[in-house]
Amino acid sequence: MTSVLGTSEKTSQEAAVALRKYGIDPASYTDFYRMVEQEKTDTVVIASPSWTHREYLIKCVEAEVNIFAKNLLSGNPPVTWEKRRGIFLRRPARRT
Hints:
Elements: E1 3-5, H1 9-20, E2 27-29, H2 32-39, E3 43-46, H3 53-63, E4 66-69
Parallel strand pairs: 1-2, 3-4
């Protein structure tokens, strides 16, 4: 892990400090695009509140980085991304 992103300086610093307890010394950011550019990010783990997933998911796709997330999409509709780049993301169909 090279960096963490927070919604404010406070949350970003708190996350970085918490990780230092485990020997990880990440840079902290509040701007996603700055983080991706400066860190040359190739993978992002989305571990934020569910209501923020869509925003970060779209930012990751636009920045062409890999994405790991427990829940990629929250809310409705099930097809959630614009046609801009020909990319559509759907929730998996429920098995019956």
